[in-house]
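Posting for a labmate who doesn't have an account.
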Amino acid sequence: MEVPQGLGVNQDIHAGNATLDLEDREHQAGWVRVRVEESWFTVERALLARYSDYFAALFQSGMTESEQDELCLKGGVHARGFLIALTVCRGEIPTISDADELVDAVECAAFLQVPRLVRHLCDIIDSDNCLLLYQAASIFGVHALFHSAALFLCDAFDELKEAAEDTISADLLQYSQSLSPSAYIAIGTHSPSMDMLHDCFRTVCYLDEKEGEWKHLTNLPTLCSTSMAGVAVLDNRLYIVGGVYGYGKETVDASFCYNPATGAWIVLPGPQQQRYDFTLLGHEGRLYAIGGEFQKRIISTAESYDAKKGEWTFIQQAPRPIASAACAVARQRMFVCFWKPPDTTDIFEYTPAIDEWKLVTTMIRNQSYGHCMVAHRDNLYVMRNGPCDDFLRCLIDCYNITTGQWTALPGHYINSKGALFTAMIRGDSVFTVKHMLTLQYTITDNGWKPCRQMKGFPKSGSLWTCLLRLPKMGPVIPQLDAQGKEEETTEGFGEAIPQL
């Protein structure tokens, strides 16, 4: 009898009394043997009940099967899919590249109702498997995966159009195209202003890719600062936290949140520890404020903001004091660059479930300071200045979190005075922007290939960039007045921003 290899699989086959003793011990310890097709899996009952809604309901049903030492799954689940589910539930990250394995995993996630497996499948969507997962999720009714794959197709439609039209049904194609694609957003560096000194360039802009130019989305609230602030997107909402104002670098205590669906800004509490020039990262319902400066001193404290509760709480402090650190999320894992002069970049991972920092890898390069880090699939791309602090050129190093290997992308990249230090990735494309130009790259196995050049941002200086899904039709845009009250206006939405 063949038993698949992997976590959760008992491969010790005994005979006679030894087998009976083993089964007795496993029963007492809360284990159950599950038959899937011709394979047997010995699994903890608690693991199945915790991660599978199907098994949780079965074990609490009071039916005869709920107390049996052996269960047989008939129909709807294949051994490969069940093994993948067990691996994911045990916290491992399986490599699933075969099309049949992907379909088996989707079928298992649907039949056994395994949310963690669904999240994993959503996270591994890429241009190679998007259409397959979209179709499989539609067949088996895995709604979260269906929607995630539809959004990916919406974002990468130009690259996948021909394959999509040949592969999926018209209904699936229509649904994906009814969604709003991610738009490239840019915000200049501004301090809070007074109404009487209104700065017409205190705006949030989006890139109109059809016309190749930047257009007005919304104005920043009067008291909002983007100077040395934290800027991040969480659940398709733009957060601007902290920042400084005045010559003395006084800290802004509040946070500001913009919802593109309604066009409204709201004011939220700032971190408990006043900070500026810090790292802000949005991930799984929380913002993470890491390090920064306070009263001209670099700090290592870190906090988490629960968006549902509206509360900041302290988490494990960073491994060492750090300011303006580059960060990225790859495969649902949070990574932060810590630079150690003159030539060392340490990449740490923060794991929220156990509130722990762990050193993942170290890169030693001349001029190794990582100005920006972005993630694509299993890869972290660290952009750094060129030789002899040549900021007109940029070097890129790639770290694969699965293999643990570093590679240097060949050649130098034209940095356009810092454009590559504000990069954002959508699908297989990279967007960079500066005052001179906006450049789009295509990510290939051999590096980043420039594919399109558009107009630059209309205001010079440092930029914050992110991705937001905007309504397809221009909404009524409520703004915040000086007292934080909403004012409705349609003025300016979609208008091109004049160049300075």
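Reply:
Got it, the structure tokens are right above this. The chain has two domains: 16-178, 182-489.
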